[in-house]
Design brief:
With 370 residues, the chain is α+β, with helices and mostly antiparallel strands. It has five domains: 1-106, no CATH class; 110-180, no CATH class; 184-284, Tetrahydropterin Synthase, Chain A; 287-328; 330-370, no CATH class. The chain contains eleven helices and 18 strands. The strands form seven sheets. It has a three-stranded antiparallel beta sheet, with no helix packed on it. Strands 8-7-10 form a three-stranded antiparallel beta sheet, with no helix packed on it. A hairpin with a 2-residue loop joins strand 7 and strand 8 (84-89). Helix 9 (286-328) packs across helix 10. The longest helix is centred in the last third of the chain and has 43 residues, at 286-328.
């Protein structure tokens, strides 16, 4: 029986299903009834066979044509062909023919989540990882303005800067917490507060802060934002309870600074910096608001009356001074008469004079010097 092993193939000679040896490309004739046969294997890719690979590799001719790697349970390997990343290999023995391409491997220990420094991170942008590669590799992206807190099995390891970070999946639990290190706003809204004079009011308060120590802020507190909120809330309640309503309304713009100075003593405890704070608004009960409106209207009316009286007094004083001047100076008095006459004439549309009337004489007398 004739078997043809082509130039891109290698032949495997078997007898009674037991491997005998590897054969180079050539035509072979096998006598019938000898229980011998030849299997041709393509050498352009992976050496994949149903037979025990360890037995086949005992043949020196075949072994020279293969790049072989054996991986343990806790190992994976990055597979490169002619220096280009191809795929990830898992537990077992893997063999590739090196007659066309040279195959190399980077073995990774899944018990160690950190990638070796010599691994080129650009391979994780390949299409292979979008399909299945991330079954073996974890990726975490840190955006601008944030810091990553890396913990392994719940223990803090280090902080991660902006960018993509990759870790080997395995027996360890790898987590990355994102912490925003930009300026942040905390709003303490709708607080029901009782002033010193027993007036219930609602206050909306705003505080701006920035995280300086992300490790302390995330690792020492279960929910540090809630802790800051409660601290700000208690400081606000304590201050309002020692002030009367009139004081609170008068000092509305100063309350933020006072509260800020109060809580700044605790900022190191949280690993943050309080930047500024202020009262957004104060909401009063309906009856208190009505009373304040009544008081405000009365105050404005009283103030308006004071201004009116002041203007009347000033006007009277001005008239008195004018009268004194005109009494002392006849020419000034006459000029004032002419001024008023001019105003009167401006309002007159037309003047009709009868021949027997004394209007001309009267006008003449009006404008003549006395």
């Amino acid at each position: 029986m004739k078997y043809i092993v082509n130039t891109h193939e290698v032949g495997l000679l078997f007898k009674n299903n037991s491997f005998i040896k590897a054969l180079p490309p050539k035509d072979y004739y096998v006598m019938p009834f000898t229980n011998k046969w030849i299997l041709s294997v393509d050498m352009t890719g992976k050496f994949d066979t149903e037979y025990d690979l360890s037995l086949l590799l005992s043949d020196s001719f075949l072994k020279e044509k293969l790049d072989v790697i054996c991986l343990k349970d806790n190992e994976i390997a990055l597979h490169y062909a002619d220096g280009n990343f191809t795929d990830i290999l898992t537990y077992g023995t893997h063999a590739y023919f090196n007659t066309i391409k040279k195959h190399t491997f980077v073995v990774l220990d899944t018990n160690n989540p950190f990638l070796p420094d010599h691994v080129e991170l650009s391979i994780f942008n390949r299409e292979y990882f979008k399909r299945e590669g991330f079954k073996y590799i974890s990726t975490f992206s840190i955006p601008v303005g944030k810091i990553g807190i890396l913990t392994i099995n719940g223990q803090f390891i280090k902080t991660l800067s902006v960018g993509n970070h990759y870790f080997i999946k395995g027996s360890n639990s790898v987590e990355v917490k994102l912490v925003d290190v930009r300026k942040r706003l905390l709003e303490v809204s709708g607080q029901e507060l009782l002033s010193e004079d027993k007036v219930t009011l609602r206050m909306n308060f705003i505080c701006q802060y920035k995280i300086l120590d992300p490790i302390k802020a995330t690792m020492e507190f279960d929910d540090f934002e809630q802790q800051i909120y409660i601290t700000m809330q208690l400081a606000l309640r304590e201050y309002v309870a020692t002030r009367k309503l009139d004081e609170l309304l008068a000092q509305k713009h100063e309350i933020g600074t006072i509260i800020l100075n109060t809580v700044k003593s605790k900022q190191d405890q949280f690993g943050i910096e309080f930047i500024e704070a202020g009262v957004k608004d104060i909401i009063l009960p309906g009856d208190i608001k009505e009373i304040l409106n009544t008081v405000l209207i009365a105050e404005k009316r009283a103030y308006a009356n004071v201004i009116t009286r002041r203007e009347e007094t000033a006007s009277t004083r001005s008239l008195l001074n004018t009268a004194k001047l005109m009494d002392e100076n006849k020419t000034l008095f006459k000029l004032k008469e002419l001024e008023y006459l001019e105003r009167i004439c401006d309002k007159v549309g037309s003047i009709s004079i009868s021949a027997n009337s004394g209007i001309l004489d009267q006008l003449s007398q009006l404008v003549s010097h006395k």
